[in-house]
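Researcher: For the record, we're logging two predictions in this thread. I'll number them. Prediction 1 follows.
Model: Prediction 1, sequence and structure:
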Amino acid sequence: MTHLTVKGRPKSFNSFYKKYLRYLRESPKQDKALIPDQIGVRVVCPFLEDITAVEEACRKNFSVIEVEQKGSDYSFKEFGYESIHLLVKLPDAILAKWKNDFVSVAEIQIRTILQDAWAEVEHELVYKAEFTPYDDQMKRKLAAVNATLFLADTTFQEIRAYQRQFRLELDKRHDSFFKKVEEFTDSTIFQEEMAGDENAKDKNFTFPAPVSSRSIDDLLLNALYAHNKGQFDKAIMFYSNILDRAPPEKTASIIYKHRGMAYFAQSRYEDAAGDFTASLDLDPASYKSAYYRAVVRQVQKDYPAAVEDFSLALSLNPYQPWALYRRAQAAYHIGDYPAALADCEAAIVLDPDFGEAAKFKAVLLSKLKM
């Protein structure tokens, strides 16, 4: 869940007394009126999806007496703020300590930031002023503002969902890349069968052809879809299309890195190394590009170049147990067993559960007869 803002307030005496008298007028037979929102808590959420999560959390932690969906009964022509109001029973520990017959419940309001902003303004313009905007022009203006805020909330949520999907595709692509790395590098030392084949690809999955009006984000998402489906030619086409648009250097560095990984998946190692180099030229701090180029050199059995690139990656970010492990493998192949052992032990220090490194350490100790 994203960052939430919680506001609380007791109802002022004037507000309480005004509502109290109104309740007594509406129900004259009662000798006292129960005002449910004497104590109020408002939870303000950045996104629409957070509202459901907050409501579920409230239901788990409080005894919910009543739920009101403010604004749910408005037609598309009407205006009014939307909000979820939960009436909850105060915990027994608080009731026992307080001993106040007038207050046994509290109200929890759950809104987005924009819903809360609209509610605050509407409260000042309409509720406090006891004003009903019968003028059609005023109604249209208020309805337009309300609709704009609703559209903004919806758009923010769509962007949030897009980002989440985008991040998922990136993670899946990284998993695929590292699986291929395992197949090439681990087997050169341990001669073990790598676990399983890649997941079956959906050959029926299609993508729209890139057009000039399509945004870079759309093209990149299409590229990642194609990449994850094993459609590397399509992925490379989308990556290249983005690069043809001359994006900012930071963006271009990322695209070169992605395209290099697609080339790697096709065993086009020189093309992959070229893209990782281009990525590094544009962003010299990209330790991942240095690491990926080192992996390519290791697969090509250019172990001295691999050691150099792993060292570059580690100079940019020393907290990479896998880079240490890979450099140890490269050092092993050029006969530098002490350096390999030192890297292997350093990798285990960073990740004590690094099983592959522990296994490799045993091989090195045997070589060194230690």
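Researcher: Logged. Prediction 2.
Model: Prediction 2, sequence and structure:
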Amino acid sequence: MTGDGIYTLGRWVVKAGQEAAFIEAWKDLGAFFLSLPEPPGPGPGTLVQSTDNPRLFYTLRPWPSAEAVAAMRANPGTPSESGRLTTLCDEYKPGMFRLIATVGG
């Protein structure tokens, strides 16, 4: 299957001892995204944590379009909401990706 779905993907290295605070801040950011005039979707936002390095997290969120991602990034509330996460991290690498194919389910 191919498609035009847009995803944001983030790689986060959380400061030692801040993992629980990061998880809660990520949930709050997700609630903020859902309140936007052009919210993400379809599908849930996803947070995964490395089993080898508990400080390493990846986030994945589907968006209806690249324009919706641009609108989210331009929203005046985004810097403070996303800033709560970045202050808990030693590293953060964001990205935007296009869905190419899926297999199964």
